[in-house]
């Protein structure tokens, strides 16, 4: 199945353009012409609207899709509460917000048969899911494909693979996502995660590891460009939405729904991934982070890291995001008389940073792919002693940064840890030591 899934993922066609109105049908004639909900939908299908925003939100912010499916979503039995595993949801009240700089190694190996949902492990977050504000940081480590279907009523999911490719079977069709790419699953969209990376001869089991940002608030969108102008950062046309593909499966299928922080399960007598055609803009996407058009200084100093924003979830205060997704993509550094690694700083925003591959240019060691660091608001951080010494003495010639791919979930509120994150064995207990060698160099003029 893994080989077939990869072949399927590699052969996909996509619709381009983040936030665009798309239309797709897996069977010719499945999309009705001129009406969203005709008296009789084509081919004996049911018409259903999936709303990701209130009906009356401004047109530019309105998210909705029309689905034409074999059975309506309303045709299901009652859900029952099930065990939440390692998943936690805001409000986070297990501990108090921690002002210390924190860093973790990658998640340990999971037990056999751990799928994406069972492999989700919540580090922490903020806000209140029931009030649709805030965010959560999750990690995942899985070694089995899902044979169940999942949806999240609490928020949208931004999936950042670090190891192992994923095939996402969604209501809208199939999306293949590899390390170096990200996938966005909108609020309420049902999907299944299949693992793609196993040895062709079957000697190695599939494995996948990565990060997830669960955004409870306003949906992610492309940031405004302001003085940058019309072009730069992430281009809308580089976001890929799936073409319609459906499952016509009769028989028991477990469906898990995340609702107000708890997991609820029901056994359907059919697959809910049975959408034959659809049109709208509340759709899943995949984006290749290496297509990010980096903007930077060509004179001296370097702009704030906000220039690396791929997606932003705005709040009620202009410019103050509920959560930003930022990528530190390959780029040239050319600044004259400039300390080129990220500078020492304290920030009103809170920063969770992860590493997809390679090394990060502000840390010499200890920050590894699959791991992550948390610098809550106003915690002082920046390059470690080895990086500072090297960058302070470096010959300032044009330099290409292309040996690493890091990202950041940046949020307006402190990230409060779960108890299992605060006490994890893979928490680095002596992270503060990376700044211990920063000595006094001050020499007053005589």
From TrEMBL:
Cellular component annotations (GO), alphabetically ordered: cytoplasm
Ligand binding (homogentisate): 360, 381
Gene3D superfamilies in UniProt: Jelly Rolls
Cofactor(s) the record lists: Fe cation
Binding site for Fe cation: 345, 351, 381
GO BP of this protein: L-phenylalanine catabolic process; L-tyrosine catabolic process
Pfam family, one: HgmA_C
Tree of life domain: Bacteria
EC number: 1.13.11.5
Alphabetical list of InterPro entries matching this protein: HgmA_C, HgmA_N, Homogentis_dOase, Homogentis_dOase_bac, RmlC-like_jellyroll, RmlC_Cupin_sf
Active-site positions on this chain: 302
Domain Homogentisate 1,2-dioxygenase N-terminal stretches: 13-289
Keywords: Dioxygenase, Iron, Metal-binding, Oxidoreductase, Phenylalanine catabolism, Tyrosine catabolism
Catalytic activity, reaction form: homogentisate + O2 = 4-maleylacetoacetate + H(+)
Molecular function per GO: homogentisate 1,2-dioxygenase activity; iron ion binding
Top class in the EC scheme: oxidoreductase
Residues annotated as domain Homogentisate 1,2-dioxygenase C-terminal: 290-442
Pathway(s) served: Amino-acid degradation; L-phenylalanine degradation; acetoacetate and fumarate from L-phenylalanine: step 4/6
Subunit composition and interactions: Hexamer; dimer of trimers.
The family this protein is said to belong to: Belongs to the homogentisate dioxygenase family.
Biological role: Involved in the catabolism of homogentisate (2,5-dihydroxyphenylacetate or 2,5-OH-PhAc), a central intermediate in the degradation of phenylalanine and tyrosine. Catalyzes the oxidative ring cleavage of the aromatic ring of homogentisate to yield maleylacetoacetate.
Protein name listed in UniProt: Homogentisate 1,2-dioxygenase
Organism field: Streptomyces mangrovisoli
Gene name of the encoded protein: hmgA
């Amino acid at each position: 199945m893994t080989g077939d899934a990869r072949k399927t993922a590699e052969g996909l066609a996509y619709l381009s353009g983040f936030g665009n109105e798309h239309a797709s049908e897996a069977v010719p004639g499945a999309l009705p012409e001129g009406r969203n909900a005709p008296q009789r939908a084509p081919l004996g299908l049911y018409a259903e609207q999936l709303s990701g925003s209130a009906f009356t939100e401004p047109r530019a912010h309105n998210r909705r899709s029309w689905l034409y499916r074999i059975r309506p979503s309303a045709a299901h039995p009652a859900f029952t509460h099930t065990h939440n595993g390692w998943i936690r949801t805001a409000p986070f009240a297990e501990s108090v917000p921690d002002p210390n700089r924190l860093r973790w190694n990658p998640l340990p190996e999971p037990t056999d048969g751990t799928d994406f949902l069972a492999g989700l492990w919540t580090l922490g977050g903020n806000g209140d899911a029931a009030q649709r504000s805030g965010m959560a940081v999750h990690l995942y480590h899985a070694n089995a494909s899902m044979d169940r279907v999942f949806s999240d009523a609490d928020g949208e999911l931004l999936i950042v693979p670090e190891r192992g490719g994923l095939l996402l079977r969604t209501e809208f069709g199939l999306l293949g996502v590899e390390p170096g790419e990200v996938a966005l699953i909108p609020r309420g969209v049902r999907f299944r995660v299949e693992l793609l990376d196993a040895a062709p001869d079957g000697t190695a089991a599939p494995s996948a590891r990565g990060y997830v940002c669960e955004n409870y608030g306003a949906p992610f969108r492309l940031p405004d460009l302001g003085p940058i102008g019309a072009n730069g950062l992430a281009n809308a046309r580089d976001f890929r939405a799936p073409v319609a593909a459906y499952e016509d499966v009769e028989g028991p299928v477990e469906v898990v729904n995340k609702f107000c922080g708890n997991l609820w399960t029901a056994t359907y007598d059919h697959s809910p991934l049975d959408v034959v055609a659809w049109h709208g803009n509340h759709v899943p996407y995949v984006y290749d982070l290496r297509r990010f058009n980096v903007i930077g200084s060509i004179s001296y100093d370097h702009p704030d890291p906000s220039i690396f924003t791929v997606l932003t979830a705005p709040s009620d205060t202009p410019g103050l995001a509920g959560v930003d997704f930022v990528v530190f993509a390959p780029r040239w550094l050319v600044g004259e008389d400039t300390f080129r690694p990220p500078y020492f700083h304290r920030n009103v925003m809170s920063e969770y940073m992860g590493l997809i591959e390679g090394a990060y240019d502000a840390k010499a060691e200890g920050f590894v792919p699959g791991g992550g660091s948390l610098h809550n608001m106003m915690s002082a951080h920046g390059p470690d002693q080895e990086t500072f010494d090297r960058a302070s003495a470096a010959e300032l010639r044009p330099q290409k940064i292309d040996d690493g791919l890091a990202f950041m979930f940046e949020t307006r509120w402190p990230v409060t840890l779960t108890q299992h994150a605060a006490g994890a064995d893979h928490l680095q207990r002596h992270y503060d030591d990376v700044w211990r060698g920063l000595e006094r160099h001050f020499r007053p003029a005589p």
